[in-house]
Amino acid sequence: MKLTVDCALNSQLLDLQDNKAFNYLLSKAKVTQVNMPLEALTCSQFGLPTPSEMEPDYPIAAIAAEADGLDVSDAFWLRADAVHLVLQRDCFSLGEPVPLSVEITDAQKIIASLNQHFSQDGLTFFIGNSGAYYVRSAQTLQIKTTLPSVAAGKNIHPFMPQGLAGGKWLSVLNEIQMLLHEHPVNLALEAKGEKAVNSLWLSGGGQMPKSAVLKNDADLVVANSAFYAGLAGLSVIQYQSVPADLNRLFSDENQHVRLQLSDVKNSFELMLTALKNRTIKQLSLNLGFYEKTLVAEITPLDTYKFWRSNKPILNLT
Hints:
There is one protein chain. The protein is built from 10 helices and 13 strands. The protein is α/β, with parallel strands linked by helices.
């Protein structure tokens, strides 16, 4: 079987620098760097049209929202991730993780306040079945956003919404931040010493793609993600949640599996074993590092290249 793995390593990078199986795979693989964040590369590999002046973003929000139980129709959607902005000496940076984990009852209170405040502005906020936040606009707007993986840990100023509608959304964000500043949910979180939801991060704007079928050669998409579920639906590919035992995926029954991997614990050890056993005949690792992605390709034959020494992941990023 062929296995393609998408894994965002931003916050897990240090945990993997001493992972023997992971470093072994990288040492034997053909590694190339793609100057695209992982989500953008995934969109491209599934055949979504390249962003243009008229449609500056990949429509990640609309694709995810439909799979997340929302009626997207032909409206304009954005992801509106709950985030915590960190005050630095002379700027704000985007704190990790993105999105923040918020109890559903608290999330509902925040969304209710946002909808009450923006009811006259043609904006409606939603919570999907997964707990993700979205915002629907009554108008189709030209807005270029930045994926949170690119801006994480950095000064947010250069990553604010841009384009013809950029000014409108900067105003919206300012109002959101003022509303959240004294929100009862945040006051309670701060009293418990937890991070407050002091802003939302907008990204992935657009309408649902017109084409019903995307192009990808995977037979099965495995993920715990509304976005990947949406991509699988558009591509007419079977979708399932990530099993507790990844070995269940490594069989000849699945010719090409695309796996979104969030928990890296022991995962690369299992892949290496399956590769050496030739259960996996081709392994492609798409490793996201903020604004770029490392693509590592390896076959069972590559594991015999004994002359290649291990390369710590930090040397490749």
